[in-house]
Write a structure and sequence with these properties.
By secondary structure, the protein is an alpha/beta fold. Helices cover about 35% and strands about 20% of the residues. Bound molecules: cytidine-5'-monophosphate.
């Protein structure tokens, strides 16, 4: 991984058991070349020690609102002014509530109120606390204020329960941090992203349309058919295209991700909604269909919740959904200069991807293995095979952000070759 020099993170550590994962986050941030300064709440220090945080950040931990006024070298305004981004991890229900209501009664909450920098929060709490209407209201206020959320994830908790409220893994938070910084302050892209400037030269002002996430096909007012797509790869591609100066529209199915900053994101639910929004966004220079569009929908959505009937087997009639990618690939009017599809396969990757390249008249198919064993669906990393009319190329395992950056560089080069 290449370091991105001089990015400064002010990390606010809240009081929760997930604070132990924050230690790993610090380590990973440092590995990437970030400078990390930490503020700990009083309760955070019950879970991890100041010494551990100081050892890992390599700098003094701040925890006392009043001590700062004596230390003229680092007042609290200066602490947040000095940072490029404030990260709250773990963000407890208490910190989220304070932020939403503008309370400032300790150093952490004062920092968060006194800043004009972007803030990313990684919530961590018991699922009932997260799902409580008060917390949901507070989170909505913060989202409306432009605070970026990384997580929480579904999973087992330290308290033995299962559900939403688990802090995202350090690598996921790291990816979210990089995404926020990339879209805001235009940090230099990592050196291993060859052709970044060339990509920006080609893509400046060009329109890129990306679909992402799953679609949901209703069975009745309560139930639906969907799939395990998280939207992470599609959102990363949209963010990378925007970082390379493209004018990006993202059409996303239901995902648990924040909208990438600076990108027009249109939320849809069904495949048919997605088709409508994709067509409305045309013409574009590049279309990248990353969404895991449901192949079928229920022929007739029941108007009321379907009741169980012990005397009869339940039976759903499925009809095929429109194929957005194929429709764009085969368009005679307004066909994007580049039409790119994803092939999520659990077997015979190359053969199936090759068949799709031809059948859907694409310029490129990005094939990945989505068998449960690969961990790609919902995970942070991806291993892709790139197929074009000129041949195929296998890329090593890398983060979905890396795949996105390289893919955008490749597409920019291909677009330049088309001369359009
Ligand atoms: O045929 P398959 O679903 O495997 O193809 C995957 C590719 O086709 C993805 O790029 C996906 O976005 C696109 N697709 C689509 N509309 C569908 C089904 C798939 O655009 N109804």
């Amino acid at each position: 991984m290449t370091a991105i020099p001089e990015q400064r993170i002010l990390l606010i550590i809240g009081g929760g058991i997930a604070a132990y994962k924050t230690l790993d986050l610090i380590r990973r941030l440092r590995e990437r070349g970030f400078f990390v300064r930490a503020v700990m709440t009083e309760s955070a220090q019950r879970f991890v020690t100041k010494l551990a945080v100081e050892s890992l950040t390599g700098s003094r931990v701040f925890d006392d609102l009043f001590a700062l006024t004596e230390d003229s070298s680092m007042g609290h305004i200066e602490l947040s002014r000095d940072a490029d981004l404030l990260v709250v991890a773990p963000a407890t229900a208490d910190i989220i509530a304070k932020m939403a209501h503008g309370l400032a009664n300790d150093l952490a909450s004062t920092m968060l109120l006194a800043t004009d920098k972007k803030i990313l929060v990684a919530p961590a709490m018991n699922l009932r606390m997260w799902l409580h209407p008060a917390t949901q209201r507070n989170a909505a206020i913060l989202q409306n204020d432009g605070v970026v959320f990384a997580g929480p994830e579904n999973g087992g908790m330290a308290c033995g329960e299962y559900g939403p409220g688990r802090m995202s893994e350090p690598l996921a938070i790291l990816a979210a941090i990089e995404q926020v910084l990339a879209s805001g302050t235009r940090i230099p892209l990592p050196a291993d992203f060859s052709g970044n400037q060339e990509a920006a030269d080609v893509l400046a002002g060009r329109r890129v349309l990306v679909t992402s996430g799953p679609t949901r096909e209703p069975i009745d007012p309560v139930r639906y058919i969907a799939n395990r797509s998280s939207g992470k790869q599609g959102h990363a591609i949209a963010a990378a295209a925007a970082a390379a100066s493209a004018d990006v529209v993202l059409v996303s199915g239901p995902v648990a991700l924040a909208d990438p900053l600076g990108i027009r994101t249109i939320h849809v639910e069904t495949a048919r909604d997605m088709v409508r929004q994709v067509e409305a966004a045309l013409p574009v220079d590049i279309f990248v269909g990353v969404a895991a569009v449901a192949d079928w929908r229920v022929a007739e959505t029941a108007p009321e919740k379907i009741k169980k009937d012990p005397k009869q087997e339940a039976c759903l009639t499925l009809v095929e959904n429109p194929d957005i990618l194929a429709a764009l690939g085969r368009r005679s009017k307004d066909r994007p200069a580049l039409v790119v599809g994803f092939a999520a396969e659990s077997e015979e990757l190359v053969e199936n991807a090759q068949a799709k390249l031809t059948a859907k008249n694409c310029d490129m198919i990005v094939a990945n293995d989505v068998s449960r064993a690969s961990g790609v669906l919902g995970g942070e990393n991806n291993k892709v095979l790139i197929l074009t009319k000129n041949g195929k190329e296998s890329w090593p395992w890398m983060t979905k952000q890396e795949v996105a950056r390289r893919l955008v560089a490749r597409l920019a080069a291909m677009l330049a070759e088309t001369g359009r």
